[in-house]
Design brief:
alpha+beta; 2,3-Dihydroxybiphenyl 1,2-Dioxygenase, domain 1; four-stranded mixed beta sheet; 1 helix; VOC_core
Length: 55
């Protein structure tokens, strides 16, 4: 397994929540196949986690 991904309804709100708690996320990108927005951030062990907007 490469990474875990979590669906979110509002990616901007999720990233703002992470930032408010001192967690940096990568720039938001758009999936070229689905047109949906996503970003990555690191867990405490520096493993990648993905947020994928479905809302």
């Amino acid at each position: 397994m490469r990474h875990l991904a979590f669906r979110v309804d509002d990616l901007d709100a999720a990233v703002a929540h992470l930032n408010a708690h001192g967690v940096a996320a990568e720039d938001i990108r758009v999936d070229q196949y689905t047109g949906r927005r996503f970003t990555f951030f690191a867990d405490p062990d520096d493993l990648p986690l993905e947020l994928y907007e479905v809302g």
